[in-house]
């Protein structure tokens, strides 16, 4: 999808040459990237929130204020071209609470490239920062307004009036897109869009860094010089009670307008000649020499199905304690199945070399490569000496050859047994895979039973899932069971950076076996995650949950430091008056609960997750994202159409709010759906076919597998040995004559019954 998007934008920039801007020679249409710029890594993927005109008919491209009367263009754009719209004003509002940022960007764009008598669809693109999660989009046009919501749906309410579309979803893990229908957007229209998302702040060496995509390309600056261009940024930072904030760097000239204990407020407001060409970056530290934290309490939100109170516990790493990191015993388990061939395996190797190089001389390590079988660097753990690491690098280069299938249980068992006898170290397993396995639930149960037998510190399993074909919820449950951590590299390009971050987090653990001493006074307690994670100098510690009863005034925390000495800390408990802990914890809790729901197949838990998704506007596997269209200035001003964007197994429950005086029930809504915007549960068929990550969607490949299995006899066997994605790519490049012949051949085989005709050559096997 990302490559198709870039090609569409490039076509749109070429079409922009048709737009006439008068006799001002200083105004020139945007130019596509040269071959040298593309080789240097220049991309048309958005680095800031953007709007695009979706152009199927190139004849409509013109200046709505100054027609050029160019010759008619015959033909259509298939797929449609995307012309970036000009930006007239932008406001960025950011609220940072602890390690989470809530971002709202409001901008006004103009459809400057479509003649006034015609209309077009508009595509919205929302790039987000670290671990970004889309919360909602609101659109205002002259006659209508639009807004997104998350809606849970029932199985028996699936609408028959579904019109499927692919005009939305995630281009990449951090870029969300949405399409505004053609009937609403005429040439020359001003479109006001409000985009909301949440993201995490990066944390390294005691410093928080906020980075928001805010780099606009030159061609979105309005051509008219007299148009006012106002750029405004409002930033609020709240690091919790009893903290002192020290500002470090900022990318834009912010003016401080408020300073209180643990709180800062900044403003940037300026008339500009051109829009920001840099991401918005702001970094700060929370001054402390010792590990400290707090516990925040809140009552349940209005409309929350769970009526228990909420708590949110956080710890900031202190410089004094974080210097005492654990000695490590590390086993790297790397998937070398056929689907890992090419860039995924090469990037994994690069990150593995980097991780090995950072091991200390007292650490022990081993490397296990697996596909259908396993291959170990050594039969035992080896000291992380320079010589052993060099030998391991040579072994990896010679043995990491992508081939075969995916068997995760065998290498996991080998690693757990290898780490069984440890006394003064922390055992860590890194599991890196891009595939799904049939026995995933059995693996979770087996690992859970094995970890309960450890007398000392049990192994921590850190998992990285690559692409959408692996089951991320299975990997998350493995990590959650073992006090570990899960991360996802949804794009092949992010494998190396995500792996290095995972290695850094695990390598800097200085407080393990954390426990809360006086939780036993609470009733009906639920903690997320259920196994308390370790505290690393590369990441703040966060635990949230629900409870009934009276929370103690002080929460006692115990743990074990890297030198195996004990650690005790008393955390103050306070009401979270200005910090929305429910919103902050919602995404993490939904991910953990979804992993539990996948494992247990608990439908009540699935419905609870759907309600949480609706209430907190967070993506989940059990809700649809819907676009609500509201008419303005007419008798049916309150009538709303629902356009569904991700179909869930429960179906769609259609509802409509109308005017109190409206007599007739509204007609069935027009619904358009796109693929599920959640991570999904992977694809066994794609894993079995060894399809590389990033090629196709799991749902589409499951459909292709059904089609392949529907073939009979030798044709069915041929389909099973054929890569679905390769077949699709070949078919898309056929000329008309070849396509006709291919269609006639398939039809003839279907009519004659290929199994009967070919039973001799196929050995007479049953189909």
TrEMBL record:
SMART domains per the UniProt record, alphabetical:
VWA
PROSITE patterns cross-referenced by the UniProt entry: VWFA
Under Gene3D superfamilies, the record lists: von Willebrand factor, type A domain
Q: Which domain of life is it from?
A: Eukaryota
Q: Which InterPro entries does UniProt cross-reference here? A: VWF_A, vWFA_dom_sf
What's one Pfam family here? VWA_3
Q: Which residues form the VWFA domain?
A: 329-502
Q: Cross-referenced PANTHER family, in alphabetical order?
A: INTER-ALPHA-TRYPSIN INHIBITOR HEAVY CHAIN-LIKE PROTEIN
Tell me the protein's name.
VWFA domain-containing protein
Supply the source organism for this entry: Salvia divinorum (Maria pastora)
